Write a sequence for this structure.
């Protein structure tokens, strides 16, 4: 049961906000609604206590600090309800048995202009110098020193502009450090190049979507783990980005699994402000307010409307707007498939029964690309089902930006790891022979790149193998057919996250009257191989083989 906080107190306002979100009086994403429900439920747990005095202490400290950026510079802070909800969860909930904070890792996905760096700076100053932790190390980490300074510099300016605080706490303020002589505590910016995360009392990972890998985050976690018997805090703050296989997206997916109840992890707390994909239309200006908790405060209404109008007119501006103002992960090119349609097509329990007629699509690779096999089946109700088998060589886990996501997908069984530094063609051949025994395979459509040797062997065994050109006049109509069936809800897939990632990656390269699948421009680390095989398998359900076409210049008029 929610305690009877004094009206308009910090805690009252924090949990009044949560109740309004749950009641629908404040529109918010499913992630924010889930966290509000989760937080209110903590008051009914006998093993958890709420320390209102600790929350008050933090908020009073924070509101005594000045704004250091923008038109309010010099004025003291006045926290918004959503910010109070964040602070109340970080500093209020305590495990009774230990007296330590419940939430030790916080993931805050906040749109541009939401004062996330300022919020992190206040938390950093407080945890460094006001919690009584001897030798407290607060680190602001990012991919570059310039980015790391985005949190540290506001914290430094707050100290410089509050000499009474510096005198009372005994702070020494330098260009790249704030130091407390009496306790040996400090606040410093650090970059992600080092695997040494120190022994942080509070580690702030700023704009994690820019991180090339999880090196710094792992170093922070390792260092925090050495502070036994205490309760350090990891604070991840970011907007969404374009690397859907990167560490930030991977962290978000884990925190979301906590929010949806599939994983229980009391140490995690998440505030993910975005729109609800599948139900919200980003072209509706109303949902932009939903994704921006500081709308009308630090997020200017006129500016946001201007970004909205630019996004309506330009595909390039659309991608930037979706990631930075709506926290929707997407690549920088205009994607081919409607992701709401693709999400609706998911059927996690999908299996293709043995013995049925199927078609197969195959796309081989060399080293860093994925190799993919997709089985297509026309179900009794007329829908087309697709199950993909995706392979990655061990060597690819060590040298690319997708390694974190690859490791997660391997662990969950959605990606098959093979030995060596290059694609294991023997493993692919064996899988294809297994599928030929399991199903009545009508045709295997394959991209000729790297696949001819295996296909000749399968053909010798009696398989109907047909090379399917990825040139625009041939693959283009097949893409049109697949897109139409997806829009008409005639496509079903088992919600494989690795394939979902590729469905978001796949873009269109126009060539004359036709098009072909492509990766987003300038993002060679993204993969689309699995989706190419889905298109090939889908084409196999419609015709036994593509009709040969006269590739003369008239096709490109």
């Amino acid at each position: 049961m929610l305690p009877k906080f004094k009206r308009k107190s910090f805690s009252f306002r924090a949990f009044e906000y949560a109740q309004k979100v749950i009641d629908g009086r404040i529109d918010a994403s499913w992630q924010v609604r889930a966290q509000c429900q989760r937080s209110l439920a903590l008051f009914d747990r006998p093993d958890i206590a709420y320390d209102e005095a600790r929350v008050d202490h933090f908020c009073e400290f924070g509101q005594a600090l000045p704004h250091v950026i923008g038109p309010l510079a010099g004025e003291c802070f006045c926290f918004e309800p959503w910010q109070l909800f964040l602070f109340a969860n970080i500093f209020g909930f305590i495990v009774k048995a230990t007296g330590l904070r419940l939430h030790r890792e916080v993931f805050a996905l906040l749109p541009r202009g939401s004062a996330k760096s300022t919020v992190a700076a206040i938390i950093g100053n407080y945890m460094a110098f006001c919690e009584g932790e001897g030798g407290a190390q607060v680190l602001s980490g990012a991919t570059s020193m310039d980015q790391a300074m985005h949190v540290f510099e506001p914290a430094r300016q707050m100290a410089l502009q509050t000499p009474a605080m510096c005198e009372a706490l005994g702070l020494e303020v330098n260009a790249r450090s704030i130091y407390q002589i009496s306790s040996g505590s400090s606040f410093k910016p650090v970059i992600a190049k080092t695997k040494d995360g120190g022994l942080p009392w509070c580690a702030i990972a700023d704009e994690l979507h820019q991180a090339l890998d999880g090196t710094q985050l792992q170093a922070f976690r390792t260092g925090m783990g050495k502070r036994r018997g205490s309760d350090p805090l990891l604070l991840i703050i970011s907007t969404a980005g374009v690397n859907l296989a990167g560490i930030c997206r991977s962290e978000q997916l884990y925190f979301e699994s906590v929010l949806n109840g599939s994983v229980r992890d009391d140490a995690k707390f998440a505030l993910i402000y975005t729109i609800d994909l599948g139900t919200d239309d980003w072209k509706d200006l109303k949902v932009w307010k939903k994704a921006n908790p500081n709308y009308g405060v630090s997020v200017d209404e006129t500016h946001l409307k201007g970004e909205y109008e630019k996004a309506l007119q330009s595909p390039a501006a659309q991608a930037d707007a979706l990631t930075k103002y709506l926290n929707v992960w997407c690549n920088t090119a205009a994607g081919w498939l409607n992701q709401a349609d693709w999400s609706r097509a998911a059927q996690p329990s999908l299996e293709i029964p043995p013995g049925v007629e199927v078609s197969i699509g195959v796309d081989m690779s060399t080293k860093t690309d994925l190799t993919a096999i997709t089985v297509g089946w026309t179900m009794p109700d007329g829908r087309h089902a697709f199950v993909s088998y995706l392979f990655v060589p061990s060597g690819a886990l060590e040298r690319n930006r997708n390694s974190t996501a690859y490791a997660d997908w391997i662990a969950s069984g959605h990606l098959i790891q093979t030995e060596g530094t290059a694609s294991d063609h023997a493993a692919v051949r064996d899988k294809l022979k297994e599928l030929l025994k399991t199903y009545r395979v009508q045709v295997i459509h394959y991209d000729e790149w790297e696949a001819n040797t295996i296909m000749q062997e399968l053909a010798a065994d009696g398989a109907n193998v047909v090379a399917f050109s990825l040139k625009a006049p041939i693959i283009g109509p097949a893409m049109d057919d697949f897109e139409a069936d997806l829009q008409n809800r005639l496509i079903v897939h088992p919600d494989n996250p690795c394939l979902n990632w590729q469905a978001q990656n796949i873009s269109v390269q126009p060539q004359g009257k036709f098009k072909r699948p492509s990766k987003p421009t300038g993002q060679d680390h993204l993969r689309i191989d699995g989706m190419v095989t889905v298109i090939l398998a889908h084409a196999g359900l419609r015709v036994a083989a593509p009709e040969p076409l006269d590739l003369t210049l008239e096709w490109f008029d």
User: Anything to note?
Assistant: The chain is about 40% helix and 20% strand. The first helix runs from residue 10 to 23. The chain has three domains: 10-272, 285-326, 339-542.
